[in-house]
Amino acid sequence: MPHILYGGDYNPDQWPERVWDEDVHLMQEAGVNLVSLAIFSWSRLEPSEGKYDFAWLDGIMDKLHAGGISVDLATATASPPPWMSHQHPEMLPVTIDGVRLWHGARQHYCPSSPVYRQGARRLAEQMAARYAEHPALAMWHVGNEFGCHVPYCYCDVSAEAFRNWLQERHGSIEDLNRAWGTDFWSQRYSNWDEVLPPRRTPTWPNPSQQLDFMRFSSDELLACYEIEREALRERTPDVPITTNFMRFFKPLDYWKWAEREDVVSDDVYQDPSDPEAGMRSAMAGDLMRSLGRGRPWVLMEQTTSRVNWRDVNVAKAPGQMRLWSYQAVARGADGVMFFQWRQSRAGAEKFHSAMVPHGPVMSSPVWKEAKQLGQELRGLDAVCGSRVRADAAIVLDWESWWALELPSKPSIRVRQEAQLEDYYRPLFGANIVADFARPQDDLSGYRLVLVPNLYLVGDEGAASLTTYVKGGGNVVIGFFSGMVDPFEHIHLGGYPAPFADMLGLRIADWLPLADGEQLEVVFADGGKGRCDLWSELIEPSGAEVLASFAGSRVDRRPAVTRHKFGSGSAYYVGTRLDQQSMARLLLTICAEAGVEPALEAPAGVEAVRRSFGHRSILFLLNHRHSTVDVPLSQAGTNLVDGSQVHAGLFKVGPHGAAVIREGW
Ligand code: GLA
Fold it and tell me: 339 C-alpha to center of ligand 1: Å?
């Protein structure tokens, strides 16, 4: 698209037709150029089985087109109509405790249900056939937030599908027994009919079974997406297809999903009361860009101010919505959208902010900010299609995440997202951009690869990381990595077996720290810090000690090490360092590896570049409540307001943003 996409979810079916003209008029005023339409319209589009009614949708599609607004048209399959579950109750999902979830909210379907899948495919076919040639159609929006409410279903239909999936993966029942280690606790299966999803059990179900069920569940929802995608692709091969992601959403392996999307899109609902909200949404943006392998992505949903689903829904500060929108663009988005266009009058989301509030509209601060942003984004055409270049990568593997957080571990306090944040935080604070990557990806383009807690690793992933370091790469591996193989069986041969030679060490044992317990860490230069969560007995076999524990059983034992391996370096961090120590460590490693910040800026100011070859655009985002002076080395043009920018100190106001075309 030649322009930054701007708009939101549009639910005209919740409003009388007379509101529609006003909607189009207001959209034009706010600079809206795209709306996501019909996401929850199935019960109107197919009021009874096989009877379709598109008249109202035709009308609004035409009106939008006449108003110059394009449509991200939903397949409308996110919430099946009541008639479907009434006639086919077996299509409803069942929880781990055997409770059936009824219609009356949304997303009440078992992902494996043939009834749901056929109904969804038929509707997608109808939509594609009807709107293939419609000039407003710009993009397809399949379903909505797959797995948001029902990522796992434990019903009998799912059980059958799970068995089929397992046969495909493992082959014979004997192979399954081996893969799941069923000689433990007398879990041997003698035939496939005995195999179940991990329903509620007296104590922990088999971990390999749980892990396979998570893989299966992600794949089943992906199959639902694929069924619709194929229906659309067949009829509209040139219309891009997306489905909206939810940041770091654990149940779905977004690497697999993103490969099947033309455009990656994401929904981000920061909590304005979270002091690290800005860091967290930057991290989500970096993930989305990486999932799309660097291609521009779309911020599909955010709120103008409050959501309605937290216990206390704190409003965004004035300017914060605009700031976080620019942040998404800085991190590679070519679209900024909202949930939703017009605030609902009825239903469960009527207290969720929107672009157009209940009223009065013109004097409302959210409307004013939304309108200002829409008008400003029109000046950002030069940004469209540009890329964000990262010299560092952070490894994230969904299967490892799932396995790491299965119960019965040395410490269940070790959580994947928190560990990722521990590595991301120092880079964000220093304005160093990182991509996310899979362990088995080609990592050779990065100067530095961070690997927080890659608990599960297969041969391919381990070989890829080893080859990367041998070839001159720098890797930092976090504790409790390389523990298990893809079956969730321990890698024998001394922990962490797949990485031990590369790291030049062995772990003799883990000594998790009690809640609230802290130890001191002493760096080789005498600097001191603290650590918590985890300690372990590291036995170097070639690795150099960069920091040691002080106190407790690990007194004077290594905590952080470095090992020269091939032409590269492999660092190991055997604990959770306090934030300052972690920043000191990672920023030193960055400097040694030649990973540089976009800009040296005052604390709280985010600086990121997008570029086309040598032409660059600098985003400056002030997360502070006060004005800051940012030293610039180059002159340029601020695309937000067209003003000239000179080298030297540049002022950015509270929650302010500047988008500076540097020297061209
Ligand atoms: C999600 C959904 C929307 C809406 C918003 C509310 O992102 O996709 O339909 O429910 O949450 O925050």
Answer: 6
